[in-house]
Automatic annotation (TrEMBL):
InterPro entries in the cross-refs: DXP_reductoisomerase, DXP_reductoisomerase_C, DXP_reductoisomerase_N, DXPR_C, DXPR_C_sf, NAD(P)-bd_dom_sf
Origin: domain of life: Bacteria
Name of the protein in its database record: 1-deoxy-D-xylulose 5-phosphate reductoisomerase
Domain (1-deoxy-D-xylulose 5-phosphate reductoisomerase C-terminal): residue spans on this chain: 148-231
Biological pathway: Isoprenoid biosynthesis; isopentenyl diphosphate biosynthesis via DXP pathway; isopentenyl diphosphate from 1-deoxy-D-xylulose 5-phosphate: step 1/6
Protein's job: Catalyzes the NADPH-dependent rearrangement and reduction of 1-deoxy-D-xylulose-5-phosphate (DXP) to 2-C-methyl-D-erythritol 4-phosphate (MEP).
């Protein structure tokens, strides 16, 4: 078959998604090339990646790490850049076909805007970008005639279920959730859970922030908003279904009541590779499902009384404007404080709710408004958290 090698910029190459993306590249050297690598702090890991994948350019976001990285790579022809502005610049390189956004949190927003404006295909792992500014991102993608392809496992599943469905109307999206490590805990038990317990996801090995989000069900709230923008579905048309085995990655129900589902073992190399190879499917090393070994797939309703973040996410998208941006910033602060043992598990929801009530609301925010809202909401959350102690 005749195809051109796709040149990929991997933003967040040293993280969980980034390293799995490089594994996909390594398995298909005839198809994909790691043209640019971007990380924040992990100089040694980045150096190893540069030596193995030979990119044209590498960016370290943390400028304090630049001298060390530059010295470590001084025997190689690779360009070495540093700082947040350099990330926005690197994604504009005309050689790049696909930008994989695999940084954590708010840091994904500006590089994604820059990549869309230079008409790159976005392989979107950084769900926070669509939570913060979904309306803006989808409008920019339309104006610049570029595709935002999902990498998040649930959204890749929905995307795959919609392939070939043309104009068939979606009746509802069934967004699956593992339920996290505390699915069967009582409120009393949730008061005592530790970060070590929260960092043990039952099915996936992921970065710390998304793992904590899974344990509070905030991940599902963020994913509901991500789905709202990717597939143009109203929030009430997205139902969360707890499916503890994480084999069905999500489903779509059509108006004739037929339901399409996508299944695979929980391995992110599947959706990452599909975003890279789309619209083709190419062979992968992902373990096939053994249905006889699995034997049971189960489903439950989420408990929004215990896991309040899911309800807060629905409230934020219903309010619209900059409210999901406020919620996202408050959540980033809450997760950080929980990981530092400064607040308890249940206090994360309290802090998010308070911050949503106390940060200035803007009905029609611009990119600049989102940046200011993020800063304001972080300040509000940090100030309010001083009234908390780590006992729930
Ligand atoms: N992990 C998973 O399986 C899934 C993740 N996602 C989403 O993908 C995104 C990445 O998650 P994950 O890979 O788990 O996270 P990790 O924490 O494992 O990795 C984050 C990566 O981003 C880099 N990074 C962090 N901050 C910055 C910054 N300011 N500028 C540039 N680079 C930065 C880190 O660099 P360094 O390490 O050098 O500091 C690291 O390479 C998140 O939005 C998450 O929600 C979605 C679905 C599944
Ligand atoms: C792998 C992936 O896409 C994660 O977002 C995953 O979905 C987390 O699992 P839960 O949030 O369902 O526990
Ligand atoms: Mn997911």
């Amino acid at each position: 078959m005749n195809y051109r090698k796709r040149k990929i910029a991997i933003l967040g190459s040293t993280g969980s998604i980034g390293t799995q993306a490089l594994d996909v590249v390594a398995r298909h050297p005839d198809r994909f090339e790691a043209y640019a690598l971007v990380a924040n702090n992990q100089v040694e890991r980045l150096e190893e990646q540069v030596r193995r994948f030979n990119p044209e350019v590498v960016v370290i976001a943390n400028e304090e790490k630049y001298a060390g990285l530059k010295a470590a790579l001084s025997d190689l022809p690779v360009k070495v850049w540093a700082g947040a502005d350099a990330i926005e610049q690197v994604v504009q390189d005309t050689e790049i076909d696909i930008v994989l956004t695999a940084m954590v949190g708010f840091s994904g927003l500006k590089p994604t805007v820059s990549a869309i404006k230079s008409r790159k295909t976005i392989a979107l792992a950084n769900k926070e970008t669509l939570v913060i500014a979904g309306e803006l991102i989808t409008r920019l993608a339309l104006e610049n005639r570029t595709a935002v392809l999902p990498v998040d496992s649930e959204h890749s599943a929905i995307f795959q279920c919609l392939n070939g469905e043309g104009d068939n109307e979606i009746e509802k999206i069934l967004l699956t959730a593992s339920g996290g490590p505390f699915r069967n805990c009582s409120i009393k038990e949730l008061q005592q859970v530790t970060k070590e317990q929260a960092l043990c996801h039952p099915n996936w090995s992921m970065g710390a922030k998304v793992t904590i989000d899974s344990s509070t069900l905030m991940n599902k709230g963020l994913e509901m908003i991500e789905a709202r923008w990717l597939f143009d579905v109203v929030p009430s048309g997205i139902e969360v279904v707890v499916h503890p085995q994480s084999i069905i990655h999500s489903m779509v129900q059509f108006r004739d009541r037929s339901v399409m589902a996508q299944l695979s073992m929980p391995d992110m190399r599947m959706p990452i590779q599909y975003a890279f190879s789309y619209p083709e499917r190419i062979p992968s090393e992902v373990k096939p499902i053994d249905f006889f070994e699995l034997s049971t797939l189960t489903f439950e309703k989420p408990d929004t009384g215990k896991f309040r973040n899911l309800g807060l996410a629905y409230r934020s998208i219903e309010a619209g404007g900059n409210m999901p941006c406020i919620m996202n910033a408050a959540n980033e602060v809450a997760v950080e404080l929980f990981l530092q043992d400064k607040i308890g598990f249940l206090q994360m929801s309290d802090l998010i709710e308070e911050t949503m009530a106390k940060t200035g609301f803007i009905r029609h925010p611009s990119l600049e408004d989102y940046i200011q809202t993020d800063a304001e909401a972080r300040n509000v959350a940090r100030e309010r958290s001083k009234n908390y102690n780590s006992i729930n």
